[in-house]
């Protein structure tokens, strides 16, 4: 596989680039936090709206399914008007909808709020990732890609901590309100950040030109949609139902992990490992290439699958969760850089987020599928079989897939797919 890179190109640091990167990272942390609070509130929401667990799981599926709409809407705005203003609008939008979710008086209104939230969640990643990757120096792109994607388990981690600190003191409704504080911080940081120089050089004059450029690259678009469908199946397949799985194990429910109830403590620990994995594999991808780094991380996850799903003691489950999530989110840590490097220059605000969120749409039934498999096979086999199949599919997709490692975003060129040697 040919890797397009030119070490002789200068690695210029744009003044204020750290603000742009910080806004992208923190926004993804907040987005993930607002999504994962529902994972920890199954019982409370079931009691609040007098519905089944399946009804609450369905709202998570709907959030995932709505994300491509947000990516298309906010991504197009980011390619037309720049990264800053659409990013600010997106974070204000999804934070407001999250507050409304906590206030929803009926299940129907709660479902509506979560669908609207899904639009904002889908919109933010594409803008934030393109803004961060375009602003970051090329030599730091791999590590900062890991930091960007590490915001996702970071949000999961903060949700687990908040369930043990904020919820007991202020009530579970507060879980939907607290993120608005970070939203204000993100807006202030983004206002201080410079506009993307890469966008200024390549942006198109009309929305029609933007959408035309999107579909001119249909071959790589379809490949990346399939790739991201499998990647998000892996992420959501290992995270969304795992706290609920832990609650079904009698010897876990009443156990303590580092002073915390195990069903909450284990997610805290494995999300710390996930952040470390994203940073580490992201950094290594700058040296060994995006695909090799991702496949290495997938191999780590596969080795940890048995203790993660079938562990018969508390600490075997903890160890399996640590290693598996380090691998899963390690692989994901390369994705912001990988997708942006494979994207056409003129639609980099739209293209990466759109293919990412279409992949999410493909994977949106994953929690429901695992829930159905659980009814027939039991939780361990349902989780284990689902995740193993996804990892094997990903090995094939990455082995035969393209790479455009360390592409220079400062030049305006059409997307050139690397060729097989």
Topology:
Layout: H1 17-36, H2 42-49, H3 53-81, H4 84-103, H5 107-135, H6 141-170, H7 179-192, H8 197-202, H9 207-216, H10 218-239, H11 242-247, H12 250-253, E1 256-257, E2 260-261, H13 262-288, H14 290-303, H15 305-310, H16 314-332, H17 335-341, H18 351-363, H19 366-377, H20 379-399
Antiparallel strand pairs: 1-2
Helix pairs in contact: 1-5, 1-6, 1-7, 2-3, 3-4, 3-5, 3-18, 3-19, 4-5, 4-7, 5-18, 6-13, 10-16, 10-18, 10-20, 13-14, 13-16, 14-16, 14-20, 19-20
Q: Short description, anyone?
A:
This protein is an all-alpha fold. Helices cover 75% and strands 1% of the residues.
What distinguishing features does this structure have?
421 residues, mainly alpha, Growth Hormone, Chain: A, globular
Explain what this protein looks like in three dimensions.
- This protein has helices spanning 17-36, 42-49, 53-81, 84-103, 107-135, 141-170, 179-192, 197-202, 207-216, 218-239, 242-247, 250-253, 262-288, 290-303, 305-310, 314-332, 335-341, 351-363, 366-377, 379-399; strands at 256-257, 260-261.
- A hairpin with a 2-residue loop joins strand 1 and strand 2 (260-261).
- It has a single domain (17-399), classed as MFS general substrate transporter like domains (Growth Hormone, Chain: A), CATH 1.20.1250.20.
- It has a two-stranded antiparallel sheet.
- The relative contact order is 0.16.
- The protein is an all-alpha fold.
- Helix 1 packs antiparallel against helix 7 (179-192), helix 3 (53-81) runs antiparallel to helix 18 (351-363) and helix 19 packs across helix 20.
């Amino acid at each position: 596989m040919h890797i397009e890179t030119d070490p002789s190109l200068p690695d210029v640091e744009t003044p204020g680039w750290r603000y742009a990167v910080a806004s992208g990272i923190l926004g993804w942390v907040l987005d993930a936090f607002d999504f994962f609070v529902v994972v920890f509130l199954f019982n409370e929401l079931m009691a609040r709206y007098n519905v089944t667990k399946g009804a609450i799981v369905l709202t998570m599926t709907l959030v995932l399914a709505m994300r491509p709409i947000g990516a298309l809407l906010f991504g197009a705005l980011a390619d037309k008007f720049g990264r800053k203003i659409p990013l600010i609008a997106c974070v204000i939008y999804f934070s407001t909808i999250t507050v409304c979710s906590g206030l929803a008086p009926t299940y129907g209104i709660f479902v509506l709020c979560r669908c609207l939230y899904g639009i904002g969640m889908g919109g933010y990643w594409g803008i934030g990732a393109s803004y961060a990757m375009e602003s970051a120096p090329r030599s730091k792109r791999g590590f900062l890609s890991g930091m960007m994607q590490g915001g996702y388990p970071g949000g999961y981690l903060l949700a687990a901590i908040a369930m043990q600190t904020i919820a007991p003191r202020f009530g579970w409704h507060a879980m939907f309100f607290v993120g608005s504080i970070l939203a204000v911080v993100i807006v202030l940081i983004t206002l201080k950040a410079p506009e993307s120089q890469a966008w200024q050089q390549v942006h198109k004059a009309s929305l029609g030109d933007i959408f035309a450029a999107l579909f001119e690259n249909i071959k790589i678009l379809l490949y990346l949609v399939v790739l991201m469908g499998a990647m998000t199946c892996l992420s959501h397949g290992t995270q969304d139902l795992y706290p609920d799985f832990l609650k079904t194990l009698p010897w876990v429910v009443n156990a303590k992990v580092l002073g915390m109830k195990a069903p909450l403590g284990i997610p805290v620990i494995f999300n710390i490992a996930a952040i470390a994995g994203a940073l580490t594999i992201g950094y290594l991808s700058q040296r060994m290439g995006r695909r090799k780094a991702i496949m290495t991380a997938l191999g780590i996850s596969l080795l940890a699958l048995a203790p993660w799903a079938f562990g018969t003691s508390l600490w075997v489950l903890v160890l399996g969760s640590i290693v598996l999530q380090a691998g899963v989110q390690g692989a994901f840590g390369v994705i912001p850089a990988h997708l942006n490097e494979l994207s056409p220059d003129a639609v980099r605000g739209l293209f990466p987020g759109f293919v990412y969120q279409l992949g999410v749409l493909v994977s949106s039934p994953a929690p429901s599928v695992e829930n159905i498999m659980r009814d027939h096979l039991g939780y361990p086999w349902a989780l284990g079989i689902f995740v193993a199949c996804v990892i094997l599919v990903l090995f094939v997709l990455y082995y035969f897939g393209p790479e455009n490692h360390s592409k220079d975003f400062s030049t305006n060129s059409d997307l050139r797919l690397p060729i097989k040697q």
